[in-house]
Amino acid sequence: MTLLSLRNAAMSKPEGDITPQLAAFLTSWAQRTRPLSTGDTVTLQGLDCTNPGPDTQDLYFATGADHLSNVSALPATLANQDFLCTDSLRNAFFPEIFRKHTAVNNLHLVLRGKGRFHLALRAHDTEGSTRLLGDTASSDTGAPLRVSLGADWPEAVRMSALVQGRSGKSRLDSLTWETAAPREAEGRMVVLLRTFGRTRDVVALFAKLRREAALGDYGHFLRNTAFVILDASNGVGKRDYASVTAGGLFNVFTYAGANLGGGGNMSQVMLHARAAFEQAGMTPDEVLLLDDDLTVSLESLRRNWAASLFRTDTTMFTLPVFRQNNHRVLWEDGSMWGRFAGGSISGKREVIRPRFLRHGRTIESTADFQDMAAAHYPEYSTFIFQSLPAAILPDMGYPAAFFLRGDDIEYSLRGRRLGHSVLSNPNLASWHEPAHSYGQEYMSISHGLIVNLCYGQEDAGTMVQFFLQRALSHLGVADPMGLELYATILEDICSKEMFLAHGFAPRYLERLAYFRGFEKKFEQLPPEIIFEILEQGDARHGQAEHHFFLYMMPDRPVDRSTGAKKARKSKTMRRDTASRIPLTQVILTNPNNWTQYIYRPQEAAHGVAVARAAARLYARIEQFSDQFDNLKDHYRRQLDETMRADFWRKELQERPETISLITSGQRND
Predict the structure, then answer these.
(1) Residue 302: alpha-carbon gap to chain centroid
(2) CA 9: distance to chain centroid?
(3) How far apart are the C-alpha atoms of 560 and 566, rounded to whole Å?
(4) Among candidates 252, 185, 260, which has minimal Cα distance to 223?
(5) Residue partners of 82: CB distance under 8 A and separation at least 6
(6) Within a 10 A sphere around the Cβ of 295, how many other Cβ atoms?
(7) Rounded Cα distance, 194 and 228, in Å
(8) Which stretches of 472-628 are assigned E, i.e. beta strand?
(9) DSSP structural state of residue 234
(10) pTM above 0.85, yes or no
(11) Residues 163, 172: contact at Cβ < 8 Å?
(12) Nearest 5°: phi and psi at 189?
């Protein structure tokens, strides 16, 4: 969901209730799903062949002499003595999730194909040691080739298959990790997805999943999975989703509703889904909360479904999230909130920022992901991908009434408080591109502050220090917009009227429109222009500096040799603030979209704007400190209120948008 697309929400008279239609859809779907019986063969993992290009082949299959690594579809042909090795990020098998959180008690590596093969199963521990767990060879009979493990497979390892062709043009049809079902299971999963302004992205995701369905046997998974999509975009109709329902590949129900932002829309679709579950007299086994702008493979979705089939506890599953513009770089593998970040090592929740785990790690070799073999429990996961047993939904309640940012943090922390931990499953992966703006900073800090108030912060000291530091940084470069941003955050927090209250969405839209006025001042400038401004500043015996638009360090401007598109990874130059020449010109850069804003601090009107904004911010810091205990009590009460179904029912009753069916379709089996 983009902030730019949050304008001009359509207004129309409410009509009907979507619950009966969704319940009828789910009833029909549930009657067509195929349950699992004890002893049934279940595929836990197949080959992911969705490599986007030649530069990332090694993320999918090991590369090397006589190795087949450019596998984009199955079947694949191996020449005599050629190898295919799955010791890679996307096709190694990490069994720890099954050991710790499921009843799975047997594993089978199974090769199906034509010709002669040698199949070896290897285990790699977190220190890089490798051992052979078993191997076997085939004749020309065409019978499946199998290496089996009992319940005592090694702890904290990743497993890989090494396949060698032993005849001319051996044809590999499939290579799968399988298990015999340890018990009966209905095996039903409902995927909840909400969107506003990204209809094309959602349709493109389903087009991608449709193409990938031809790469393997996904029939059982697709039959047992239903997608429920809330699209709150303006003017979306049946024609927009025609390609999704065409051909009867997916069980999908798409409807239009109110735009309540990311968190509000997740609560909205969850409210309707839970009401439909009750009316249909069925509850799925698993519910997957999915974002509208991620890239994920059908294989990852099937792997998550398989991991949830035989759960033994209520752990919520998530996955590693990589950068969309660089598939090798991890953005986060889950996170901590408010702790172990920004220099805080006390373990207390005392800072208003995340600690992204494994953040910025680049996957260049197996050494870069060997530690993923051990179970990894972050404190929270994002709604990019969060999978949880449906049975805990009544216990969990509904996500907080946050428009964007922080709703997933709060929901995860709430789950942990109730005893539902979070585990990142390394057998899965998604790609997503982060973004940031003044509006997103407003929501991130406001909601993060509320999360801290509600989850353990008992003293205002570190929060006051945070805002004092922000004040000093923006004063250091004479930036009134940053000062206004943080003053507005504290003003709205102290008012008690902006957050976690009925009618929240229009208030957010007003604030976001205000901050878009800041962003309109930015433009994309060629690097040579930036360099020229910085050089001329010195030539005129003044001081021109280049800084990031947020979280700048006044004594460390961006290196003048850094162009706009390199700002994200730029070096900084330390300045001696005691002998610093007065600033005559400042360039602020948003490294998320490579745009710049240029201003002259010494202009009289600019100086007055800085003084007024600073005075407003310092007054609000004092007010916040004085009211801290009262604010803490208020937001804890309000958060509890927004967890409840009655809050969301009332919120939707007061909205003017139509809630109506767009389209639905059932899988043809």
Answers:
(1) 18
(2) 25
(3) 11
(4) 252
(5) 66, 67, 68, 164, 165
(6) 19
(7) 8
(8) 543-548, 583-590, 595-599
(9) T
(10) yes
(11) yes
(12) -125, 135
Render pLDDT for 68-107 as a digit per residue (tens, 0 to 9). Answer: 999 999 999 999 999 999 999 999 999 999 999 999 999 9
pLDDT, averaged across the chain: 91
CA distance between the termini of the chain = 34
Kindly state the helix (H) or strand (E) to which residue 355 belongs, with its residue range.
strand 354-356
What's the CA gap between 647 and 284, in Å, rounded?
24
What is d(CA 384, CA 596) in angstroms, rounded to the nearest whole number?
Answer: 29
Two tokens, residue 408: 């997933």
| Alpha helices in 431-503, H assignment, sequence order | 438-454, 461-476, 480-495
Beta strands in 91-188 (DSSP E): 107-114, 117-125, 130-137, 145-149, 157-165, 170-180
Is the predicted pLDDT of residue 540 greater than 80, yes or no?
no
Label the pairing between strands 189-195 and 225-231. parallel
Q: For residue 585, which phi and psi values (nearest 5 degrees)?
A: -155, 140
The C-alpha atoms of residue 249 and residue 206 are separated, in whole angstroms, by 10
- Which residue type, as a one-letter code, is found at position 146? R
Q: Which helix (H) or strand (E) holds 189?
A: strand 189-195
**18-34: per-residue pLDDT in tens?**
999 999 999 999 999 99
Task: State what percent of residues in the chain have pLDDT above 90.
Answer: 81
List the alpha helices (DSSP H) in 397-460.
407-417, 438-454
Do 69 and 60 meet the contact criterion of CB atoms below 8 Å apart?
Answer: yes
Token pair of 500, please? 């976690």
Q: What is the CA radius of gyration of the chain?
A: 27
CB-based contact 241:200 (threshold 8 Å): no
Q: How far apart are CA 47 and CA 68, in angstroms?
A: 13
pLDDT in tens, 191-229: 999 999 999 999 999 999 999 998 889 999 999 999 999
Please enumerate in sequence order all residues whose Cβ is within 8 A of that of 446, keeping only pairs 6 or more positions apart, or say none: 489, 492, 493, 498, 499
- % of the chain exceeding 70 in pLDDT: 93
Cα gap 256→411, rounded to integer Å: 24
SS3 607: helix
What the block records as the tokens of 397 is 């309640």
Residue 247 backbone class (left: φ over 0; alpha: ψ -120 to 50; beta: rest) = left
Per-residue pLDDT band at 3 (split at 50, 70, 90): very low
Residue given tokens 């006051």 in the structure block: 464
User: Tens digits of per-residue pLDDT, 301-351?
Assistant: 999 999 999 999 999 999 999 999 899 999 999 999 999 998 888 889 999
Please report which confidence band the pLDDT of residue 536 belongs to, taking 50, 70 and 90 as the band edges: confident
Tell me the one-letter amino acid at 405: R
